[in-house]
């Protein structure tokens, strides 16, 4: 039996009759206010993808036995839409988000779909809620594509019903610090992900286990925790970001380092963009760009020798966030920050990414105009 593919041409649109107030930029708190509309597409194993709907933002009514509530059949993406200088709405490398979402869906026994068809529907949401896309660098409309299993049964099995939906939230900076450098606490009493596990997939369940160590870190004044792995103290990632370090090597070259994608690390779109831009734009006589294992002890030792130059996190929500210090087992690793702001490379990479996101530079077709 053939089942229906996701088809953007079938989109049914019902506009709100009760438009919300658009908040001023200074009142935007990450993910707390939402736009007028949302998207939904139901799936059943029997028929495939149903009619996509764009309708006023609303609650769901789900049976308490629904499998998402019991076995975490849930995965999501984080994407952003930006307003360019001509007022057009743009998304950034959405093909990467679609690819990752389908990878997560396959791993979670949820249905996959045609990413380009889904993006065509998302474009319609962006046009319907266009007035919520804020203007200005650092401001955007955060999109949260989500896929849940909706079979109302307690048997532990692949869902035969699912719901793909998208909500959107106008946002400014992710951290309370605004765009200023953040402080991290290295966690080695718990592990975020294990080789062969699901750490490389964007499953909601991966984030649940992060909250307790993150709250512990917050009690001691840190914004996020830095996950370590194993006795050796391998650096993996931060709760909501991938992590990068810049070292000044003895031969005078600088090295940009991030841990490799070994299955325990989320393959971030901003991570990939940082590596691609660094490899294309930095002078290779002066820079080495490395995806290699590194430990907290290397970072500590090189900070003491004055070889640690910069550290920053990357993520869709966090964009490029400078790091000012990392506390590990009661000792602080200080990262040099210029006048309490980001270092030179951190600033440079933020600007390169920003100019593509806001449509000022065309680079490898990474920016897509919603139409
Ligand atoms: C993102 O950067 O979009 C994330 O998913 C991180 C977090 C807000 C869950």
How would you characterize the overall build of this protein?
- The chain starts with 11 loop residues before the first strand and ends with a strand.
- Helix 2 packs across helix 3.
- The chain has two domains: 165 residues, Aminotransferase class 4, branched-chain amino acid transferase, N-terminal domain (D-amino Acid Aminotransferase, Chain A, domain 1), CATH 3.30.470; 176 residues, D-amino Acid Aminotransferase, Chain A, domain 2, CATH 3.20.10.10.
- The chain is an alpha+beta fold and 371 residues long.
- Strands 1, 2, 3, 4, 5, 6, 7, 8, 9 and 19 form a ten-stranded mixed beta sheet that branches. Strands 10, 11, 12, 13, 14, 15, 16, 17 and 18 form a nine-stranded mixed beta sheet that branches.
- The mean pLDDT is 96.
- The protein is 23% helix and 29% strand.
- The protein is globular.
- Bound molecules: 2-OXO-4-methylpentanoic acid.
- 2-OXO-4-methylpentanoic acid binds next to loops.
- It holds the Pfam family Aminotran_4.
- This is Branched-chain-amino-acid aminotransferase.
- Belongs to the class-IV pyridoxal-phosphate-dependent aminotransferase family.
């Amino acid at each position: 039996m053939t089942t229906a593919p996701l088809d953007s041409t079938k989109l049914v649109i019902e506009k709100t009759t009760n438009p919300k107030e658009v908040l001023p930029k200074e009142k935007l708190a990450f993910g707390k206010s939402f736009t007028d509309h949302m998207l939904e597409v139901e799936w059943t194993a029997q028929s495939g993808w149903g009619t996509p709907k764009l309708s006023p933002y609303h609650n769901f009514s789900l049976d308490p036995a629904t499998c998402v509530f019991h076995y975490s059949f849930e995965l999501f993406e984080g994407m952003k839409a930006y307003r360019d200088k001509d007022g057009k709405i743009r998304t950034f490398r959405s093909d990467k988000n679609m690819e990752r979402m389908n990878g997560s869906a396959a791993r979670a026994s949820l249905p996959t779909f045609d990413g380009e068809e889904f993006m065509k529907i998302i474009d319609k949401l962006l046009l319907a809620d266009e007035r919520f896309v804020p203007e200005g660098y650092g401001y955007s409309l955060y999109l949260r594509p989500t896929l849940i299993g909706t079979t109302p049964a307690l048997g532990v099995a692949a869902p035969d019903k699912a719901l793909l939906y998208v909500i959107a939230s106008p946002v400014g900076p992710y951290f309370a610090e605004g765009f200023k450098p953040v402080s991290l606490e290295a966690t080695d009493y718990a592990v975020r992900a294990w080789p062969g596990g699901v750490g490389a997939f964007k499953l909601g369940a991966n984030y649940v286990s992060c909250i307790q160590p993150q709250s512990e870190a917050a009690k001691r004044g840190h914004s996020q925790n830095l996950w370590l792995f194993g006795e050796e103290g391998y650096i993996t990632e931060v709760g909501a970001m991938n992590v990068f370090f810049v070292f000044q090597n003895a031969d005078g070259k600088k090295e940009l380092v991030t841990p490799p994608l070994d299955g325990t690390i989320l393959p971030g779109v901003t991570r990939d963009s940082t590596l691609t831009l660094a490899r294309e734009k930095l002078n290779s006589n002066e820079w080495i760009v490395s995806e290699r294992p590194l430990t907290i002890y290397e970072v500590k030792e090189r900070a003491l020798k004055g070889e640690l130059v910069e550290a920053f996190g990357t993520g869709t929500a966090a964009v490029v966030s400078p790091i000012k210090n990392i506390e590990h087992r009661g000792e602080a690793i200080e990262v040099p920050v210029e006048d309490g702001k980001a270092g030179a490379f951190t600033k440079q990479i933020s600007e390169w990414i920003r100019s593509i996101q806001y449509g000022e530079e065309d680079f490898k077709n990474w920016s897509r105009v919603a139409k």
